[in-house]
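Hello forum,

I keep getting stuck at the same step: I have a sequence, I want structure tokens, and every attempt I make locally crashes halfway through. Rather than fight my setup again tonight, could one of you with a working pipeline run this one for me? It's a single chain of 241 residues.
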Amino acid sequence: MKQHPKWVEFMREQYPLGTRIRLTEMRDPYAPVPPGTEGTVIHIDDACQFHMKWDNGRTLALIPGVDHFSVIPQPLQTLKLYMPLTVTTYERNKWGDLEDDPIELDNREILKCADNILAGLVRERRPEEAERGLMTYYGDEDSMSRKVQSYVFIVEKINGRLMGVAECQIRGELTEKELGWLKENISGQASDGFGEGLEQRPIKTDDGEIYVSLWSSDKRWSIMTQDELAQSQRMGGMTLE
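Reply #2:
Ran it on my machine without issues. Output:
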């Protein structure tokens, strides 16, 4: 029996292709798959039946609401999303007072402060973020919430340049739409959430105090996957280290 398209869509989001299943009980009266058998979802049809590739070679479909099963969590994988960062400082005038306008540091000066900047990012983290990082504040119960276990901000040296990095722990693969949602969420944290607090607090270095911004209003600012970053740098005659 066909199910409502919205329900089918929801189930396909909940159990994407490749989801690993452990069977608890199958109600098939003739030749059920044995309890404890594990398998992989290969298709969900319009009746919301799970077409399975069971590890024992069987292919009998699973019927949610009739058969009982549990999802085997996929192992976490690291996804890094890169963004340019800006580092500024305030010089003192001849009377020893700080100037009103900040001075932007160049790449060489920023790289000297890499450890200080990373320490400053870590100090901004809150105890409640220990398990899920900034995903703690993601309020929706959707596929992104299920797939993205956590993300935190760090820095990483890329081809002689220090870049901001959102280090994400992911289960499974993100769709293009989910990756867009994640980038949008990270951009919000870089500009108005975590990043706003970060850029207001000085970070001490051997040469004085610096201020770090993960986000910029510059139109060239963007969040990129490693592949996107590599492509961007190849176009500029550079390659990832």
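Confidence is low (pLDDT under 50) at residues 237-241. If your local run keeps crashing, start a new thread with the error log.
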